[in-house]
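Quick start: what a row looks like.
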Amino acid sequence: MKKLIVLLIIIAVVVYGGSPYYSAYQLKNAYDAKDGATIAAAIDYEQVRPSIQNQLTTQFATTMTQYPLVAELGGAPLADAANGFITQAVDGAVTPQNIEKIINTQGQANTATKELAAAWAIASNQVDLKDLIQSLIIHRGDINVVVKNQMQQIMDKQATELEQQAAQGSDSDKPTLSYCGINCFTISGQVKGYPLTIEMQRDGLIDWKIVDIVLPQ
């Protein structure tokens, strides 16, 4: 009886400790099989959305410190317009329906994906600042017009780059898996050539949910 109890305890510990590795295995298989529904169901959107929004708005604020002339010309209205676009883009892209579509197609950029790519671009210093300054002067500081024009240009550019990257970029054969706490687990690797880190959190005893996605800088 004691041996049976010990064996059961060992099995329970192995299942408990190994559960995130199995979850990561399932996610990798779902991605390879273009099974978007499985991955979409594994995401805690109430945690992932604000995290991505915060990453992008913080990154944009850092980018603007490098360009005082743009900040001076645009001021708070430019930051508000850009941050508003970022929030809107993340809300539109990080949904169960869109995540499922992204995984299923793996390369076809839809409107929500284009907007998120544009939000990432403006936050990551991919904006044509010379054109932005000229637009601010031409439109006499009409931030809404300037941002709208810039976003459309970036969306068109990013859509082409996304599809090229999807066709040419490689995925990690063996992502790095590691515990970051007893209820925290990370998966790091490349997706279509972009470095990403996914953080999962224990949901019950052996189930796990994706609670954060760290975007490339």
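That is the whole record. The chain has a mean pLDDT of 81. Residues 2-32 form the longest helix (31 residues).
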